[in-house]
Design goal:
Layout: E1 2-5, E2 12-16, H1 24-31, H2 35-44, H3 46-53, H4 58-76, E3 89-91, E4 103-107, E5 119-127, E6 130-138, H5 148-166, H6 172-181
Helix pairs in contact: 2-4
Length: about 180
């Protein structure tokens, strides 16, 4: 596993898993804009789409996903020095109230009129304002454990967190030292 500097200033990184052509963040945005992939995903998860979001038209779900993906990508890729990633990342566990070492975080669109977004980006928080993206998903259920594709994301974020801890990475400085040694 390697890491790509997305913002080129060390604030946002993305995992490039072994054997993957691109990092996970770019791959997610490509996937969320691939109509054929989305159609297949929503057909396979149509019960969740209808149960949780009351959407029966897969074309509506595809359109909504592409729109949300473009908005989320614009926020994530805002590389201006004043961009604040802490405004979109929140603790993965809604019950977590304190900071923790290499905290597990999620990003999603907020303040959408009349609806919420099902797109999630998962990351490890190195320190305030510095994140390593580990994956993402279309989350159509209340908890991540309910479906294989979201449970896989839980396993990936834990795998990356454990990898960083094994490499003695505990913050942004030790992460940069690790990257420099490669």
């Amino acid at each position: 596993m390697t890491f790509d500097d997305i913002t080129e200033d060390g604030r946002l990184w993305a995992v490039r898993y072994d054997g993957d052509e691109d990092n996970i963040l770019y791959s997610l945005f490509d996937q969320w804009n691939d109509v054929a992939w989305l159609r297949s995903f929503f057909k396979a998860n149509s019960n969740d789409l209808e149960s949780y979001f009351k959407i029966t038209n897969i074309n509506d779900a595809i359109s909504r996903t592409i729109d949300d993906s473009e908005k989320l990508e614009a926020i994530m890729m805002d590389i201006s020095p004043q961009a604040n990633l802490d405004l979109i990342f929140r603790p993965l566990s809604n019950s977590r109230i304190a900071e923790c070492l290499l905290g597990k975080e999620k990003a999603r669109l907020k303040n959408l009129v009349g609806r919420s977004s099902w797109l999630r980006i998962y990351a490890i928080k190195l320190v305030k304002g510095v994140y390593v993206v580990t994956g993402g998903a279309i989350k159509l259920t209340a908890t991540m454990q309910e479906r294989e594709h979201t449970a896989t994301e839980l396993a990936k974020i834990e795998k990356v967190r454990n990898f960083l801890l094994d490499e003695k990475v505990i913050d942004d400085e030790s992460f940069i030292e690790y990257i420099a040694e490669l």
